[in-house]
Design goal:
mainly alpha; Sufe protein. Chain: A; globular
Length: about 140
């Protein structure tokens, strides 16, 4: 599935909910469905800086394809990570960089997050882009 197809699916899924309480529940459920990561991976090397909650993102690179694993101690942040990893895992660095997460505005997510969570989301987006940029630089 292409990045755009994944984005369209997320937009469609969020459109089923008519209020933000239900959307938050859906977001939390997405986070709960992520596979657990090994506790040994919860180290500073993988920790996203600028996020009020603890969030660890582990990139796995195989033949120019990046997959992301991760975990957070916050249900909402875990859900935010789940959305972004759903879109960007399985993509190349170029695809990640060339497809900024503008869909977050379409689902009105950013405007329903508090300032702390919005900053954390922006930190996560910057972190994923940094991983992609570093991959391009080293190849």
């Amino acid at each position: 599935m292409s990045i755009q197809e994944k984005i369209n699916q997320i937009i469609e899924n969020f459109s089923y909910f008519d209020n933000w309480e239900n959307r938050y529940e859906y977001l939390i459920d997405l986070g709960k469905k992520l596979p657990k990561i090994d506790e040994n991976l919860k180290i500073n090397e993988f920790k996203v800086q600028g996020c009020a909650s603890n969030l660890w993102v582990i990139p796995e690179i195989n033949q120019n394809i990046i997959n992301f694993k991760g975990a957070s101690d916050s249900a909402i942040v875990q859900g935010l990570f789940a959305i972004l990893t759903n879109v960007y895992s399985g993509a190349t660095a170029e695809e990640i960089i060339n497809n900024p997460p503008l869909f977050l505005e379409k689902i009105e997510l950013k405007e329903h997050l508090g300032p702390s969570r919005a900053n954390g989301l922006n930190s996560l987006i910057r972190h994923l882009n940094s991983i992609a940029n570093n991959m391009l630089i080293s190849s």
